[in-house]
Amino acid sequence: MKNIRNVLFYSITIGIFSALLYFFIRQGTFLEKAGQITQKQTTTSSWEQFTDTFGHNIHHPLATLLLQIVTIIIVARLFGWVCKAIGQPTVIGEIAAGIFLGPSVLGMFYPEVSALIFPANSLGNLQFLSQVGLILFMFIIGMELDLNVLKTKAQEAIVISHASIILPFALGVGLALYMYTDFAPENISFLSFSLFIGIALSITAFPVLARIVQERGLSRTRLGMMVITCAATDDITAWCILAAVIAIVKAGEFVSAIYTILLAAGYVIVMLKVVKPLLKRIGDHYAYREGLTKPVVAVFFLMLLLSSYCTEIIGIHALFGAFMAGVIMPVNQRFRNIFIEKVEDVSLVLLLPLFFVFTGLRTQIGLLNDPHLWWVTGLIIAAAVTGKFIGSTVAARFVKQSWRDSLIIGSLMNTRGLMELVVLNIGYDIGVLSPEIFAMMVIMALATTCMTGPALDLIDKFLPGPKWDDIHPVHEPSRFSVLIAFASPQGGRKMLRLADKLVSKQPDEQQITALHLSPSSYLNQVNTEEYQYETFRPINEEAHELNTTFTSLFKPSQSIEHDIIEIANEGDFDMLMIGIGRSVFEGTFLGKILGFTSKFVSRERLFDTITGKEKLFHSDVFDERTTHIIRSVKVPVGILIEKNLEQVRNVFMPLFTPEDRRLLPFAERLSTVSGLRMTIMDPSQTVSQHAETGEALDALQEKSPENVTMLYENVLEKDFLQGQDLMVISLESWIKAVESHSVWLSNSPSVLIIRS
């Protein structure tokens, strides 16, 4: 009855007001001038009106900007994925994406497409939007700097960072002597040109360096803290020098720039002595997620914009103001982490790629059409690498760092990446850099950033660091050590519950290591500690309930499966346990057809395809990552398919083939657990007829007669399986069951698949 009333009311309301609208429009037509309307209708046809409107909409500035953003994000993500796959920072791919979309590639080979997506009159909008992204990014960089860390290592860091600035700066000024006559723009003094070349060679990319340190697992080490401190000190010093250089360039003479420098010094003093204490009081009061209401967030964003505005009108660029605003943010780590989360995704994913592509649109590699120009490019790269690498390495060695650590510091400080592009774009905007020099410098930024990873690999090869066993003592032979590698905290909680049953209950023989690898792109210098705490909190709670202990191992990673394999093989563990999703077809070739997954083919599989070891398409019962781990780890691997594993009391182990006798050591460990009932099934009785296996089964029953039950018939019925908490099965038997589409799989409990 209620539905009929609703329909009736809806129909009457729509009908009455539709009729009223028709009456109003009908009356309004009498007010029109018939002659003008007739003339408009007879001039063009309906189709022509539609095409004219559609063409106007396509070329509307907003539509053009949206098309540019969509294109930039897609291409930047694609190039970033390729660079990540070959072990390079994603920022390299994003810079390469900009060059690809610019006149060097797309504009050269497909000028019509380039003109459609990036018409010349639209670049102004793209530039201003990219500048907004840069302002937000520099704000984040300032927040990620921990000034307290700088104070603790200030002396060594200042020596290393300033040495890594002065040497390349001097080489850059010397190189300007060689380049000034041929490449300096008109009306630019040698002082301005040389100072800018010097600062361009002196910069270090703090964000890229920090990500590399995280990916290499150095962020918690003494070396990692040292190099982060050096890079932070370098950034602060370089930006202060850059502000002075910009003031000199804009003023024209050093004496005229003194007024600008004095204004900038006054601005810095006000920010540190007046604004910073005020923001600290606000941050301490609202240092929780619910406290950061819109008015509070508006205060901090207003401060950011005002700071950027002040430095822009002073004459030292808005980006310095954004950087300074981040530096003076409240030092409360929780507050900074919450605020970074609000800004980072929009800045890094949406707006920052616009800056890379805008840089690429400015980069005209085609201008370097003479061997002499490439010779000059080589000189720039050589001066940049020599100054930064040698300056940092020698200074690090002088402050009593080892040769290995000194070389690592030198390699990392030579990373330029995004920060170099920021400096270069400032130089291009104020007219110090010509298009040729700009292209050369962009190539130098790419080259010096690309060489960081291979340089670190060479150092590890010829000057290897301490082995795993030196850091983590090898356990006693009587111990059974389990490494659980988990993705989700709740999954790690279930794996710890199972691993606790496998290890001995004697405290001196118990050893469980919980490993969590996080994609390095998810982390920054501020949120790493809180992220680690939240990740391991459920596992710590479970360990407390089980009255057990474990060793936590947290590591940012660029290649999760590679790091799992390396840690499992080098750590001298007795077993690796990993977890996968519930669907046995997820990630497989059949799963791809059915739409379960859309992951890219892994680079390991691509390499194996090229070398003829494997087929390109994945046909295993596990996803590609799991299969790669299973094949590469030297110790036994347990793959847990978890289905509400709330307890481990009833465990079932089917033995289908004689090779399944390799599961018996695990059955023996489980059979000793108090309150755990172990059921071993041998449906064909071929396994128990094997002499050694039969003796082992008899010994197992004699040792734990109350915990172990033998079944010699096929009991894979729904009622039996639903009464079990866990099934332990060999990898070979599981594969056969999946490939034969065994009907009992759908009723199986949680499964631990063991590859012996």
UniProtKB/TrEMBL annotation:
InterPro entries: Cation/H_exchanger_TM, CPA2_transporter, Na+/solute_symporter_sf
A Pfam family reported for this protein in Swiss-Prot or TrEMBL: Na_H_Exchanger
Cell compartment(s), UniProt: Membrane
Topology with respect to the bilayer: Multi-pass membrane protein
GO molecular function: antiporter activity
GO CC, alphabetical: membrane
Keyword list, A-Z: Ion transport, Membrane, Transmembrane, Transmembrane helix, Transport
Biological process, per Gene Ontology: proton transmembrane transport
Name under which the protein is recorded: Transporter (CPA2 family)
Species assigned in the record: Dyadobacter jiangsuensis
